[in-house]
Amino acid sequence: MNSTHRNIVKTLGKVLLAILGLILLAFVGVIVYFKWFYSSDDIDTESYYVKSLPLSSDRFPDDFNEIAAIVKDNYSLAESKNLNLDSICDLYAIRVKDISSPKEYGEMLEEFFASLQVGHSYVYLKSYTAGTFPTVINDSVFISNPNDIMTKSGFRDKDRVIAVNGESVIDWMNRNEKYVAASTPLNRRLFAAANIFRSLFDTTRDYTVCRGNDTIEINLPLLPNDSLPSSVSAKTDSKVLNDNIGYLAINTMMDGVIESFVSEFNKVRNLPYLIIDVRNNEGGNSGNGRELARYFIHEDQPHCVDNKIISPVDDAYQGKVVLLTSPMTFSAAESFVIDMKESGNIILIGEPTAGDTGNRPKTFKTSSGICFRIPTAPPSVSPKGFPLEGIGVAPDYLVSQTVSDFINDKDTQLEFAKQYLTATNLDF
C-alpha cells in the first residue's frame, strides 16, 4: 500500500472514530437529558388549569408522544397488570390527532393515566372544586358537615345527592370512573363519587338533592382550587372514649405529623386500649409512617417498603390496638397499615385500603411543561408476602357505615370497634 492509500485509510479511520464519538456523546446526552430534565428529584413541578396549558393545540400530538415514550420507558407495573403499553399509547396517539381544545386534551390525559390502573399515576392539572368530600355509602352520596361554600349555595348536612346536571349520580359515576387513577375498584368508585364536586373546566354545576321528603335543585359554584379559602385540618386528633379506650386519628403522613402525633398520643397512651383511625389518611412520607409504627410494635421488624429495620421506641405502647381503615387509606398510610398488621399486635376493622403504597413514584416533565407522575419500581411484596400494590389490605372485620347510622350521627365502624373490645374482654 503506497503512502497515499495509507493516508486515505488513516483519514477515514479518524472520520469514523469522530462519528462514533459524536454518536456516543449524543447517546449519553439523551440519557442525561431524560434523567435530569424528565425525572430529576429537583424537577420544577408545575400544575395548570386546562384553559392555561402552556402549549397550543397543534402541539398536543407531539406532547403526548413525549409522554407516551417516557411512560413506556419508565412505568414499572404494566406487566404485572397485563397491560400492553404499546397498544394503549398507540390508541391515545390516534385519538389526540382529533383533539383541538385544551378541555379535550386535559380529559384525555386524565383518562390515559387512569388507564395505567394505579393510584400513583396522574397528570398535574388544577381543578375547580367546592372543597368538599362527600360520604359515600353503597353508591349513595351524602353531604357531611358542609363547608361555607356548600351552605351558602343551599346544601345542608345529611343531604343526599341524587343527580348532577340532570344525570343520575349512578350514571355520572359510571361515566366518569375512566378518569380516576386507582389501584382497586373500591378506591376508584370512591373518588368517582368525590369528583362530583370537582371539574377540570366547569365553574358551576347543578345538583338534585333529596332532603327528607323534599327534592331540591341547587346550583353550586366551583372555585379554582388555588383560590379556595384556606382550611387547616388537624394532622392528628385524640379523645378518651371511656375509662379504658382511647381514640387517636392520624389524618396524614405529611411533614409535621410526628410532632402532632406525639402531642395527641400522650393524652391517651396510659389507657389500656386504643383505637387508631387512618380512614381519612391519604398518605405522604412513608418514613413518617415507619416512625409512627415504632410507638406500637413490640420487637424489631423490617419496614414493608424498604426493609429498613423498625425498632420499637423505649416506651412503646403496650396496650391492645384496633386500627380503622377505608378505601381512602392510601400510599404511606397504607404502608403504615401493613407494618402494623405484620407486627401481629393489632386488629383491623372497617373496609379494605386503597391498595397502593407507591412503588417509587417519580415526577416527569415534557418539553412543553406538562408534569405527570408514575410508579417506577417493579412490583414487590412486604416481608410477609403481601403485595404492595393492586390489593387493598383486608380488615379482620369488614364493617361499613350504614345509612341509618349516618343519618343519626353514629359512626358504625367506630361503634363496632368499641363493642368488639368490650365484648371480647379485650383479649385478642
From TrEMBL:
<dbReference type="GO" id="GO:0008236">
    <property type="term" value="F:serine-type peptidase activity"/>
</dbReference>
<dbReference type="InterPro" id="IPR028204">
    <property type="entry name" value="Tricorn_C1"/>
</dbReference>
<dbReference type="GO" id="GO:0006508">
    <property type="term" value="P:proteolysis"/>
</dbReference>
<dbReference type="InterPro" id="IPR036034">
    <property type="entry name" value="PDZ_sf"/>
</dbReference>
<dbReference type="Pfam" id="PF03572">
    <property type="entry name" value="Peptidase_S41"/>
</dbReference>
<feature type="domain" description="Tail specific protease">
    <location>
        <begin position="215"/>
        <end position="400"/>
    </location>
</feature>
<keyword id="KW-0720">Serine protease</keyword>
<dbReference type="GO" id="GO:0005737">
    <property type="term" value="C:cytoplasm"/>
</dbReference>
<keyword id="KW-1133">Transmembrane helix</keyword>
<dbReference type="InterPro" id="IPR005151">
    <property type="entry name" value="Tail-specific_protease"/>
</dbReference>
<dbReference type="InterPro" id="IPR029045">
    <property type="entry name" value="ClpP/crotonase-like_dom_sf"/>
</dbReference>
<keyword id="KW-0812">Transmembrane</keyword>
<keyword id="KW-0472">Membrane</keyword>
<dbReference type="Pfam" id="PF14684">
    <property type="entry name" value="Tricorn_C1"/>
</dbReference>
<dbReference type="InterPro" id="IPR012393">
    <property type="entry name" value="Tricorn_protease"/>
</dbReference>
<keyword id="KW-0645">Protease</keyword>
<feature type="transmembrane region" description="Helical">
    <location>
        <begin position="12"/>
        <end position="38"/>
    </location>
</feature>
<dbReference type="InterPro" id="IPR048818">
    <property type="entry name" value="BACUNI_00178-like_N"/>
</dbReference>
<comment type="similarity">
    <text>Belongs to the peptidase S41B family.</text>
</comment>
<keyword id="KW-0963">Cytoplasm</keyword>
<protein>
    <submittedName>
        <fullName>Peptidase S41</fullName>
    </submittedName>
</protein>
<dbReference type="Pfam" id="PF21558">
    <property type="entry name" value="Pept_S41_N_bact"/>
</dbReference>
<keyword id="KW-0378">Hydrolase</keyword>
